[in-house]
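A reminder before we start the practical. When you read a complex entry, don't treat the lines as separate problems. The point of joint prediction is that each chain is placed relative to the others, so the output describes one connected object in space. Small molecules and nucleic acid strands, if listed, are placed in the same frame. In the example below there are four entries. Take a minute to note the order of the lines before looking further.
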Amino acid sequence: MENFAEINPNYWESIHQIQDYSWGGLEETFSGSYDSSSPDGTQSVPTSKNIVSERNRRKKLNDRLFALRAVVPNITKMNKASIIKDAIDYIQSLHDQESTIQAELIELQSQKLGFKSLDSSPMGKSKKKRVDEAFESKVQPIEILELNVSYVGEKTVLVGLKCSKRKDTIVRLCEVFESLNLIILTANISAVSERLFTTLFIQGEEEEMDALKMKIETAIKVFDNPQI
Amino acid sequence: MENFAEINPNYWESIHQIQDYSWGGLEETFSGSYDSSSPDGTQSVPTSKNIVSERNRRKKLNDRLFALRAVVPNITKMNKASIIKDAIDYIQSLHDQESTIQAELIELQSQKLGFKSLDSSPMGKSKKKRVDEAFESKVQPIEILELNVSYVGEKTVLVGLKCSKRKDTIVRLCEVFESLNLIILTANISAVSERLFTTLFIQGEEEEMDALKMKIETAIKVFDNPQI
DNA sequence: CTAGACACGTGATCC
DNA sequence: TGGATCACGTGTCTA
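Here is the predicted structure of the whole assembly.
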């Protein structure tokens, strides 16, 4: 029953080989036999043409159905109706999955940016919202006011950064520094009015200082311009 | 041509009403007429049954095709073959979209956790990876070793937290505190070996202390158990 | 008028 | 056996 598809995956084609004695590229040659079956030559020619056309139409439709079966997993039966039914169910499951994944994306984005949905419902109910809207809103760039990188000996680099403070600056700044895969010995972040003062002690060599400064600057810029 | 679907959306059904004179619930009554067409009663009865069965089969297949057309947007033509083709294209576009969104999700997760893909290609090429794998791996819980919340006057609350330090503890901790929508005056984070010492000055009232301590604890636990 | 699309009835096949 | 499925040829309608 259900192993039928595995045993004979080309069900219709096998039927073709059994029943369809005028398949393949032999249609034109067989038009003569159709003429022999109908002695009056006036009406026989369009009839055979219609037969060929209808044959091609059926073949195209079956090929389309076969292609549809190829892109849909979890095919239960090889029926035409079942294939269409499985395709419908699969599309609907893809719709649900897409909504769920987009909800997850929005949840993650709001966690990264706004942090407004912690005490809301456990599973974010705000489905069916375009993810582009969540991306294009609430980007809070980090404005670098001052950046000093100095070597203080003992394989230790001191980084001083003064920047603007917006809603999520602290988190984004931590992300920037974590993204650089540095060994952070001590971090001190102080917020005064709208300014943010950061002092880092990082394990590093003296010759890495200039590269490190460039790295931090570009990392902050990259983080402020998400390429999505 | 292309407005044909809007003018007559029930193309096949209208065809039914014109051509199919034995539709609806009248199949049984019409079996007599089929018997009249074939005088030999022995073979006529199974033939009429087969006719009815085939009619139902065709109707079911058309209904399925109609339902498929309903779940697929951007239908170009009303042809059977075109409907199946549009469904195939739509499923493949959904596949691509799903891969893209999952890549974005993985990218976001890796940004939040590992921070390994900053200097890679701008558009993450690591498609076709299950998102569940990205979720179930690399969860680094924050282990609370000590948590003190004390009131120091002047509408200022001092929070001291000692916890374990793993790869992404600092970022996650900042996320926790940002999620509470507190007014952070000063933050000091120091990492020594595998321990993380955090000192926060928060703007708050004395009577909010116990609630604040509970809030921080639960927030950390909630962040360590993402409900996805 | 021609070409394309559809439903119909029928015989064959499979389980 | 018989119910379900399929391909086929044909008539009909529309663009």
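Discuss with your neighbour: Residues 1-44, 113-138 of chain B have pLDDT under 50 and may be disordered. What might explain this?
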